Sequence to fold (195 residues):
Amino acid sequence: MSNITPVMIKELRERTQAGMSDCKSALTEADGDIEKAVEVILKKGIVMAASREGRVATEGEVRTWVDAENKRGVIVEVNCQTDFVARGDDFRGFVTTCLEVAKAAKKGADLGAETVNGKPLDTLRQEMVAKTGENTVVRRWDTLTASTPNELVHAYIHMGGKLAVLIRAEAPNADARKNPEFSAFIENCAMQIAA
Fold:
């Protein structure tokens, strides 16, 4: 125990965002091995995540993505317990990761089982719970794809990500699809759906 220094505790804290006492305990349990201590903290975080599973997560963010040709779009909703966490960089980064995973996933896939750098997204979610102390849930996601040349996909986000709409619309012809008035009509439709 005497070989655990404040520098080691600081390094572990920076790597895991765990509390100082948790870092010291993990280093003690790992006999001063920082890599093993990281694993100890992650395991404890997964246990903490399991204990938070039942907590209601009603805050969060809805994020969308539409490709440059407006042929395919994705929408993802990720929830946490408080607005404070929802506005944090860690949570917003996790939402970005979820959106990237959803862009690559097949429609209807379980996002939690999809991998990011060899780790299931659900493991990253559990690490987020351990870091923030709040339940975090990938509530739902979907994707839309234009099936004809005259269709387009459009996304609308309202209230800074509290509400979002992803719609697919078909223009009468290819020229109408490119018409700014048609785009304005679709934007208005999305706003009405959000309302």
Notes: The longest helix spans residues 34-52. The radius of gyration is 21 Å. The chain has a mean pLDDT of 87. Helices lie at 6-16, 20-29, 34-52, 83-86, 89-104, 121-132, 174-178, 180-194.
